[in-house]
Amino acid sequence: MHTHSPDLKRTLLNKVPEVTIFFWLIKVMATTVGETAADFLSVDLHLGLTGTSWVMGVLLLAALGAQLRARQYVPWRYWITVVLVSIFGTLVTDNLVDTLGVSLEATTVAFTIALAGSFALWYASERTLSIHTIFTRRRELFYWAAILFTFALGTAAGDLLAEGLDLGYGISAATFGALILAITVAFYRFRLNGILAFWMAYVLTRPFGASCGDLLSQPTGQGGLGLGTVGTSALFLATIVGLVLWLTLSQPRPRQLA
């Protein structure tokens, strides 16, 4: 029998998935669902921003609690938490802008500062921002705080381009898509730092997904394709469920520490 130090026993297996094409596909669709589901709950179901925020906040706390208690990455648990963070992050921005009257410019700047602050605290504490080493409780808390700020920032930045600057959903989606492509080329061709490239792309996939969601769901008179929030949310949720199910079934069983 092998023995392990107390420090190793207190650590967790890495709690986040490997960064593959499936990771990015689900991430983009989760951001789209965050945009359309928030609109569906607050507008179509008449819950309002406040009511929707309370409901999603409670669900997020429950999902995050389950994720934090787990000792290893489980696809369905992790991605449920991501989807709920996406919806809640959208609602945080919408509440600031629509309810409190904070401008999109101010909201974008505020969440940029908040995200930079969370990264600074994370690095000062752990000396790394790598998602490949999320195996302690403290690192996981830093990780989820950063994820929440990326979603809130992405919502604000996406709305700022599409609505504040009146570029429209299609041009906004193309703009953010081009920036993501540029980061990808910089990483593979010019050896951009992997951690920096990951977080830049992670932030940009939020407004990219949100712009795509609005483009698909909004009425044609408002620059969308008129699929509606119900149809768009259902389509992307079904795809997420299918991919997560496949990842769950194909995931190798972790070896137990002896």
UniProtKB/TrEMBL annotation:
Q: Which InterPro entries match?
A: DUF347
Query: What UniProt keywords apply to this chain's record, in alphabetical order?
Result: Membrane, Transmembrane, Transmembrane helix
Q: Which residues cross the membrane?
A: 12-33, 45-64, 76-93, 99-121, 141-161, 167-188, 195-216, 228-249
Protein name (record): Membrane-anchored protein
Q: Which organism is it from?
A: Nitrogeniibacter mangrovi
